[in-house]
Amino acid sequence: MMNLVKIKDKYQVTIPEDIRKKTHCEVGELLNISLHGDEIVLKPMTVEEKYSENEINALEKIFKSPHNRGRIMNASEFKRHQEKL
């Protein structure tokens, strides 16, 4: 089955419903776009979290603290500071 889509303003296209359902695409997900010969290929992307939820929470506390504004920490300082929290 061939799906036909139209390129809209800002070069946007809508992924047809049957394709979205088969690939489990959701709003807000990232797609990798590449060119294979003369074909445009879209592939769902998986993004790994770089920091754990605890580390992100610690970062937020550090950034909100008036004592640490503008201060740069190396990794070991950050871990020590995180353990205090």
Count of alpha/pi helices: 3
Number of strands: 2
Using the 3D structure, state the CATH architecture of the largest domain.
Ribbon
Based on secondary structure, the structural category is alpha+beta
How many domains? The number is 2
| Strand-residue proportion | 5-15%
CATH topology of the largest domain: Pemi-like Protein 1, Chain: D
The string of secondary-structure elements, in order, is HEEHH
Helix content: 25-40%
Q: Which parts are unreliable, with pLDDT below 50 for 5 consecutive residues or more?
A: none
Written account of the structure:
With 85 residues, this protein is an alpha+beta fold. It folds into 2 domains: 36 residues, Ribbon (Pemi-like Protein 1, Chain: D), CATH 2.10.260; 32 residues, no CATH class. 34% of the residues lie in helices and 14% in strands. A two-stranded antiparallel sheet has the order 1-2. The mean pLDDT is 83.
List the helices and strands and how they pair.
Elements: H1 17-23, E1 31-36, E2 39-44, H2 53-64, H3 75-84
